[in-house]
Design a protein that fits this description.
The complex is a heterodimer of chains A (116) and B (107). Chain A is mostly helical and 116 residues long. Chain A has six helices and no strands. Chain B has a single domain, classed as Glutaredoxin. Classes of the chains: A mainly alpha (116), B alpha/beta (107).
C-alpha cells in the first residue's frame, strides 16, 4: 500500500461499524464473503472511508461524477438497490453461495479488515 | 512489480489513443475489492501479449477526466483501444480466458 492510501484510511469507529454491518447483512441475506478475505477487507475499508467523508457508505466499486450528490441520492449506498432487490453486489462483498468466488465466511475479524 | 504501467489523465492521449498497437486499459480504484482479483490477470496478459498489446492501468479516483469521458461506472472496467477508438469493454472480475478471447478479436 502506498503512503497516500494509508493517510486516507478511515476512522476506527467507521471501520468497526462497517465490519459489523457486513457480518450482520451477510447472515441476514444468506450471502458469503469472498474466498479471498483481503477483497472483503478492502471493500469494508472503502465503505468506511466514504462514511467518514460523505456521511454514507457509498459503494467504492463505482466511478461517480459527483460523490456527494450520489451519497445524498442513495442508490449506491451500501446495501445498494441492486443488492437489496436482487442480491447483486458487483463489489463482491456479499456473494450468493453459487458464486465461484464465494467462500464460507460470514464473519471477518477487525485485524483482517485492517490488514487486507 | 506490476507489468501494467500506470497512465493518467495527462498521458492517456499519448500512451493509449496514439499507440501503434492495441491497448488494454484497466480502470481501477484503490478501495475496490474485485480490482484486486483482476489486477494479477491483467499482469499475466501483459506478459503474454508483450509486443502485441500494450497493457496499462488508470486509477479512476486520481484521473476522473478520462474515467468520465469513457463513461466508467462499475469498477473494475477493462477497455480495449485500437487506433484511438474504444473497441471493447469488459466489466467486473472477468476470467482470463474471456479477456484473452476479447483481445484476440482485435489482433
Amino acid at each position: 500500500m502506498s503512503p497516500t492510501e494509508t493517510a486516507q484510511e478511515a476512522t476506527t469507529k467507521s471501520l468497526e461499524a462497517m465490519r459489523k454491518f457486513s457480518e450482520q447483512y451477510a447472515k441476514r441475506t444468506g450471502t458469503y464473503f469472498c474466498v479471498d478475505l483481503s477483497v472483503t477487507a478492502v471493500v469494508i475499508r472503502g465503505l468506511a472511508k466514504h462514511k467518514d467523508e460523505l456521511g454514507a457508505p457509498l459503494c467504492p466499486c463505482r466511478h461517480y461524477e459527483d460523490k456527494e450528490a450520489e451519497a445524498k441520492q442513495g442508490f449506491w449506498n451500501c446495501p445498494c438497490v441492486p443488492m437489496r432487490e436482487r442480491k447483486e453486489c458487483h463489489c463482491m462483498l456479499f456473494l450468493t453461495p453459487e458464486n465461484d468466488f464465494a467462500g464460507s465466511e460470514q464473519e471477518i475479524s477487525p485485524e483482517v479488515v485492517a490488514g487486507g | 512489480m506490476s507489468a501494467a504501467a500506470a497512465v493518467t489523465d495527462a498521458s492517456f492521449q499519448g500512451e493509449v489513443l496514439d499507440s501503434a498497437v492495441p491497448v488494454l486499459v484497466d480502470f481501477w480504484a484503490p478501495w475496490c475489492g474485485p480490482c484486486r482479483i483482476v489486477a494479477p490477470v491483467v499482469d499475466e496478459i501483459a506478459q503474454e501479449y508483450a509486443g502485441k498489446v500494450k497493457v496499462v492501468k488508470l486509477n479512476t479516483d486520481e484521473n476522473p477526466k478520462v474515467a468520465s469521458e469513457y463513461g466508467i461506472r462499475s469498477i473494475p472496467t477493462l477497455m480495449v483501444f485500437k487506433g484511438g477508438q474504444k473497441v471493447d469493454t469488459l466489466v467486473g472480475a472477468v476470467p482470463k480466458t474471456s479477456l484473452a478471447d476479447t483481445l484476440n478479436k482485435h489482433l
